[in-house]
Amino acid sequence: MTLGADVLIPASDIQEKVREIGARINEDYWGKNPLLVGILRGAVVVLADLMRNVDLACEIDFMEVGSYGLGSTSSGIVRILKDLQEDISGRHVLIVEDIIDTGLTMSYLHDLLLTRKPASLESFVLLSKPSRRQVDIDVKYVGFEVPDVFVVGYGIDYAGAYRNLPDILALELESASE
Ligand code: IMP
After folding, report:
1. What is the phi/psi pair of residue 141, to 5°?
2. Start-to-end Cα distance in the chain
3. pLDDT-based confidence at 66, cuts 50/70/90?
4. Do residues 81 and 47 lie in contact, with contact meaning Cβ atoms separated by under 8 Å?
5. Which of 10, 12, 18, 103 has the fewest beta carbons closer than 10 A?
6. Among 150, 167, 6, 147, CA closest to 74
7. Pocket test for ligand 1, best of 46, 77, 99 (most atoms within 8 A of CB)
8. Residue-by-residue DSSP string for 140-171
9. pLDDT (0 to 100) of residue 39
């Protein structure tokens, strides 16, 4: 398989952005004990970096939801594959997600977690593709806005691969299947 890919966001820019957002979280949640909810599996890498820039007593938990499978377009169907272990009622919850694309996943998660009565509920996404949005959803912390390209690296996969790359790359899917 030929991988056609260009670096879209180098690792150094990602680290700088994560530090900057970590500093905002420190200010916004000062005196609080937020629960960072990483959405498996794509958010693992960014959550690990983000939490090390959060200088507060925070905790982490994880959820896994079904999204792309092996393809590259959203089915719009969200399935819970792994639920939280923590009771989030009365907690300050921050969802940590790799990408917001159509917004269907984030919108579903937001509505679901709100029913569990958190003290507050906000979200962080590393990447946003605004041109693809199908639902209007307010994301408090956005790392980078990207065009409608398929990206991999820094936790983000194509068919399970490339999560270990330190940079974010734009993948040319046509050449990837040659
Ligand atoms: P949404 O529900 O359409 O917003 O999709 C969000 C999820 O789709 C993300 O958490 C990713 O898992 C996946 N996704 C969206 N765009 C890409 C991409 O460019 N590369 C890899 N996964 C993507």
Report:
1. -120, 115
2. 6
3. confident
4. no
5. 12
6. 150
7. 99
8. SEEEEE--S-EEEBTTB-BTTB-TT-SSEEEE
9. 97
